[in-house]
Amino acid sequence: SSASAHQPTQEKPAKTFDDAASESSDDDDIDALIDELQSNPGVDGSESEDDGPVAAGEARLVPEELLQTDPSYGLTSDEVLKRRKKYGLNQMAENNESLIIKFIMFFVGPIQFVMEAAAILAAGLSDWVDFGVICGLLMLNAGVGFIQEFQAGSIVEELKKTLANTAVVIRDGQLVEIPANEVVPGDILQLEDGTIIPTDGRIVTEECFLQIDQSAITGESLAVDKHYGDQAFSSSTVKRGEGFMVVTATGDNTFVGRAAALVNKASGGQGHFTEVLNGIGIILLVLVIITLLVVWTACFYRTNGIVRILRYTLGITIIGVPVGLPAVVTTTMAVGAAYLAKKQAIVQKLSAIESLAGVEILCSDKTGTLTKNKLSLHEPYT
């Protein structure tokens, strides 16, 4: 049964992916990526009952005996509850960052730290004008950035709601329509024209013929023929035919879910422009500290009062570090995001504009580049 549990390796839609890591054999690179995404840990069955977490890109193995569902009767209600408790809902995990933390993060950074220190120093010296200006710049930077990203996130959430679909499964011998996120491994799912497949599964209807659009996975517009025993993948669409399939993977364990987990794992970090700004801020901060040490030493030997020394410190800090830079950069990017919104482009994170602004050459893909591993360039349009 272990070999049967590893059935997804029979169908390899991801052979259309090309990581181009090796110059000697591009086909070997594609096969390596396919093996990484389609391989299931615990093929020998020893890990089939492991309820612990799995690494990004890995699948949680469903024992083959749980997939031997009677296609004419489906799962019972009690069995559905057990499997939902064990495998969870059929949805990909999302990192929901706290709004408070997201807002506070706009006050984090080398330049922001200097501005905050200067604000505290200005308050201590009762210099309320400088204190108000610095706090105003900090709040402007945080407010503009937070509002822009919050609005973009709200729009995306509304779009996700419109994508919520249903699935028709056999439960207790009856065809029932349920929310797609309630499908569990072992369910018998009905496929017909127009069905958007919500999970990975294996065709169990004998002598059936299906044509399934896998362009969401491969980018190839041509429908793929499917027969008894073949794999169907989440986010694919049935273009022709009718049949049933047994659900083999849900949520993050689907092919698409594992690919998304690998992408999310590799897409962390700051944008290049943000790193450059932080680097500039650190350099200026070091120069300001060195200057302050020189000034403090000179004032010590001249026996200047502590208040005068602190005023020198505040002045040098404000002059030496571009306190208005974060607000200017954030406001500029927010204006760019508003312009893109008019072009029907949603900017979820302002740092994405920084990265896109640094692009010098943009190559757009066409059908065949991924699926055939061939790239051709004709007359570029600029």
Outline the fold blueprint.
Elements: H1 2-5, H2 26-38, H3 77-87, H4 99-104, H5 110-124, H6 128-162, E1 166-171, E2 174-179, E3 188-191, E4 200-203, E5 210-213, H7 215-218, E6 224-226, E7 231-232, E8 237-240, E9 243-249, H8 255-266, H9 272-301, H10 306-320, H11 325-342, H12 351-357
Antiparallel strand pairs: 1-2, 1-3, 3-9, 4-7, 4-9, 5-6, 5-8
Structure, explained:
This protein is an alpha+beta fold. It folds into two domains: 2-90 and 183-265, Distorted Sandwich (Calcium-transporting ATPase, cytoplasmic transduction domain A), CATH 2.70.150.10; 101-160 and 270-357, Calcium-transporting ATPase, transmembrane domain. The chain has helices spanning 2-5, 26-38, 77-87, 99-104, 110-124, 128-162, 215-218, 255-266, 272-301, 306-320, 325-342, 351-357, and strands at residues 166-171, 174-179, 188-191, 200-203, 210-213, 224-226, 231-232, 237-240, 243-249. A six-stranded antiparallel β-sheet has the order 2-1-3-9-4-7, with no helix packed on it. It has a three-stranded antiparallel β-sheet with strand order 6-5-8, with no helix packed on it. α5 (110-124) crosses α6 (128-162), α5 runs antiparallel to α10 and α6 runs parallel beside α11 (325-342). The radius of gyration is 28 Å and the shape is elongated. The two termini are 55 Å apart.
Summarize the structure.
With 382 residues, this protein is of the alpha+beta class. It has helices spanning 2-5, 26-38, 77-87, 99-104, 110-124, 128-162, 215-218, 255-266, 272-301, 306-320, 325-342, 351-357; strands at 166-171, 174-179, 188-191, 200-203, 210-213, 224-226, 231-232, 237-240, 243-249. It has two domains: 2-90 and 183-265, Calcium-transporting ATPase, cytoplasmic transduction domain A, CATH 2.70.150.10; 101-160 and 270-357, Calcium-transporting ATPase, transmembrane domain.
